[in-house]
Design brief:
Elements (H helix, E strand, L loop, with lengths): L1 E4 L21 E4 L10 H15 L21 H5 L3 H11 L15 H4 L8
Antiparallel strand pairs: 1-2
Length: about 120
């Protein structure tokens, strides 16, 4: 597990000035489970998720979006962006209504907001 300090100028910027809203955090954590043997991938994923579950009660609800895996993002994007999420939905609907930018940490625009059906990423 890697710990990265969040300090300095990060705390001098208002939470609403940028998309990232976790400016009151003091540490960012990355849990990495790596092995050259692909046969161990599922076991390592289970280990990493169990590790995260064990320490999550001591974390803030959000996270640093670029540290998230694509299969875990769906439920955590809104929490991660906090109060900025609604504003980001409006930006997404206006500038990316066709959902071109949709890989990994995607802000999903609801079909009823844009009247556009999105195709899954290929």
């Amino acid at each position: 597990m890697h710990l990265y300090p969040i300090d300095g100028a990060v705390h001098c910027v208002d939470d609403r000035a940028t998309a990232w809203s976790a400016r009151d955090a003091t540490w960012s954590m990355v849990i990495a489970a790596v092995d050259p043997n692909p046969g161990k991938a599922e076991a390592l994923k289970r280990w990493g998720r169990a590790y995260w579950q064990a320490i999550h009660p001591f974390n803030l609800d959000g996270g640093y979006i670029n540290f998230m895996m694509d299969d875990e993002v769906h439920g955590r994007v809104q929490t991660t962006y906090g109060e900025n999420y609604e504003r980001l939905l409006k930006v997404k609907a206006r500038y990316d209504p066709a959902n071109l930018f949709r890989v990994n940490q995607n802000i999903r625009v609801a079909a009823e907001e844009t009247s556009i059906m999105f195709q899954p990423a290929v």
